[in-house]
Specification:
Layout lengths: L5 H13 L4 H11 L8 H14 L17 H13 L5 H8 L3 H10 L17 H18 L8 E9 L29 E9 L2 E8 L3
Antiparallel strand pairs: 1-2, 2-3
Helix pairs in contact: 1-2, 1-3, 2-3
InterPro entries: DUF4817, RNaseH_sf
Keywords: Membrane, Transmembrane, Transmembrane helix
GO molecular function: nucleic acid binding
């Protein structure tokens, strides 16, 4: 928006008063009274009127700029210390506890070579599982040393049990110009399940087999 001198802003307010706050009429009257000046649009009159009614003056509002966070040693220690103390902490929690922006925290953490890594899920071990697993792996290594094609004679298999569940209504639509109150009869009281088994032997896929009565 163009910066108008204080004298011109005052004349705009007086013109608005004469025109009973009609911005369109005020812009025309102002152009007739001050033809040598820059002619503001009606929207400019509206903005000045709104500002005058809020603040009681025609001075321009000072822009408030947010200062960037000073990355001194204390700030860096606070952010990096939070990560070292709890590697699972989120940047959102650090931001709330330190009152620093997440972008600032993310940048500092990366500058100190800290990067987010995804966790891997693994099966929990019980009792002698670790010792038994180690013994089995040593046995496999011995078999591979005796026969390089040992795994071609090993059958790897897995199975999964599927159960009936509710229908996902997002996958069913009934297009009509009026609501037909459509419904679908469900047999939720009749429970069923099916086992699916499959295996791999060498370079061959075995199955899948559907075992309904198990």
């Amino acid at each position: 928006m163009r910066n108008y001198p204080r004298e011109e802003r005052i004349d705009m307010i007086f013109t608005l008063g004469e025109c009973h706050k009609n911005s369109l009429l005020a812009s025309r009257v102002y152009a007739q009274n001050f033809p040598e000046r820059n002619q503001p649009k009606p929207t400019v009159f509206k903005r000045f009127l709104h500002q005058f009614e809020e603040s009681g003056n025609v001075n321009y509002k000072k822009l408030i700029t947010r200062k960037s966070v000073t990355e001194d040693e204390e700030n860096v220690f606070t952010k990096i210390g939070s990560v070292i103390e709890n590697p699972n902490v989120s940047q959102n929690l650090i931001s709330k506890s330190t009152n620093f922006s997440q972008s600032s925290i993310s940048r500092i953490i990366k500058e100190h070579n800290f990067y987010p890594h995804k966790i891997q899920l693994c099966q929990e071990l019980y009792g002698n599982d670790f010792e038994n697993g180690t013994e089995f792996r040593m046995w496999v290594l011995d078999k591979v040393a005796e026969n390089e094609k040992f795994f071609e004679n090993v059958l790897f298999s897995d199975e999964y049990t599927f159960h009936n569940s509710l229908v996902n209504r997002h996958n069913f639509h009934y297009y009509s110009d009026t609501n037909p109150r459509a419904y679908r009869v469900m047999k939720n009281q009749n429970r069923w399940s099916v086992n699916v088994w499959g295996g791999i032997l060498g370079q061959y896929l075995i199955g899948p087999y559907f075992l309904k009565d198990i």
